[in-house]
Amino acid sequence: MESFSLILAIVVITALAFDFTNGFHDTANAMATTISTGALKPKVAVAMSAALNLVGAFLSVEVANTISKGLVDETGIRPEVIFAALVGAILWNLLTWLVGLPSSSSHALMGGLIGATIASAGMDAVHGGVLVTKVMIPAVAAPVVAGVAALAATRLSYTVGGKSDGRAAEKGHRVGQIASAGLVSLAHGTNDAQKTMGIITLALIAGGAIAPGSNPPTWVILSAGLAIALGTYIGGWRIIRTMGSGLTDLQPQQGFAAQTSSAAAILASSHLGFSLSTTHVVSGSVMGAGLGRKGGVVRWSTAGRMAVAWVLTLPAAALVGAGAEAVTGLGDWGTALVAVFLIGSSAAIWKISRRQVVDHTNVAGTGDGSEEPAGVVTQAIAAVAPPPAAPAAVIPAQAVAETVADVPAAAPAVPLAGPPAVALLAEELAATIPAPASAPRIDIDLGTTPPTAPATAAVPPAATV
To answer: Do 279 and 105 touch, CB atoms closer than 8 A?
Structure first.
């Protein structure tokens, strides 16, 4: 075994940084529904999820082997290629976290790896069959399967629960939801932590530190598990808000159904070695659960934005990875330049996120504009609707008094002792000087303050005009 080079150490550190972003980016997958239904408090939920992510990292290495042995050709891949791939994945994770979109960290990693590999060794270095069967097909099928399962489970849950005591059934579903959330966290560690294990193992093979075809060493499994657990504990609150209440409003029965369906799909895919997106699975389950309840709705505008992010994830990360690989190919100074770009971009995204902080205290929404915007139909109706009718004109009593001062002396004398006198004066004016037929209706504000006589008249309160 050869000793670690500087670039290999940089790659390992960057991979663990990606694993950290994967953790807080995907916390919502396990705990968003649990938090939104009130089954667990936010900080308790993320702590539980972090611990189970760490445990899940030790359960399997099948997904790690898909990344390190199957997706790209190990021969001819330099550590710089892995570094460039991680740059693309990290930046996409941070950008989608900033806007609160639950995109796939897995596809960001694989997109970065594919783009950097193509830029370095050409198209032949990517195994297209593995990409299609173990990445693309599961990406399309998983949310559909999980959504249908969650829809059926939700309807079954309401059917069975409708015959039992309401409070007892709700309490039971909350307990079940906590258990299923733990299962999703365990499955997330089994699937997502392995992707970082696979990328580190691939870097070790590329750097000559371990033999080709090796499984992830124990220290790689441990470090990847700890990194994703720490990121999970930090909590990706922005994405938790979107997943928990931005897609649909969930009740405990729906949360239990969604998480149970998600856990089953993720664990099955991990066993088969599919590099599945847990984000896609959980999002599909949440939408299915939303449609499964009678009267439930799905906010399709949010779902549409998520779908756009899903489609863009792999090619966007691939483009950034390819660009980063082109710069690192210029030598050590090129690698240093990419590292500075990554650090600077990450710091800028974090600073922008501080303008509107989302954490465990306001993750459920605070009326700060994070709620679902008006739909296209609502906006169109508002654009063509006629403006509301203007309110009737109101003339204050003071203006009436000033008008009285200008009335010719031939007008009837009316005492100006207070509001009743003003009312009588208005009636006399209406009889003497009728308004034109087209004039608008006039309301007179009969205030409680007696009108003040003009200074030139100097009439005492008891006098008459």
So the answer is: yes
What burial letters (b/e) apply to 19-29, b meaning 16+ CB within 10 Å?
Answer: bbbbbbbbbbb
Could you identify the residue written with the tokens 């949310």? Answer: 143
* Element of type H or E holding 443: strand 442-445
Residue 81 host element (H or E): helix 79-98
Identify the CA nearest to 61 among candidates 168, 173, 218: 218
pTM (two decimals): 0.67
- Write out pLDDT tens, residues 281-340: 888 888 888 888 877 677 777 778 878 888 889 899 999 999 999 999 888 889 999 999
The single residue listed with the structure tokens 């998480």 is 259
Q: How confident is the model at residue 366 (pLDDT cuts 50, 70, 90)?
A: very low
- What does 257-278 look like in DSSP terms, one character per residue? HHHHHHHHHHHHHHHHT----H
Q: What is the pLDDT of residues 148-192, one digit of tens each?
A: 988 888 888 778 766 665 676 667 777 877 887 888 888 778 777
- According to DSSP, residue 92 is labeled H
Residues 6+ apart with CB under 8 A from 353: 97, 98, 238
- H or E, element range at 444: strand 442-445
DSSP β-bridge partners for residue 443:
394
User: Can you tell me the distance from the alpha carbon of 397 to that of 422, in angstroms, rounded to the nearest whole number?
Assistant: 7
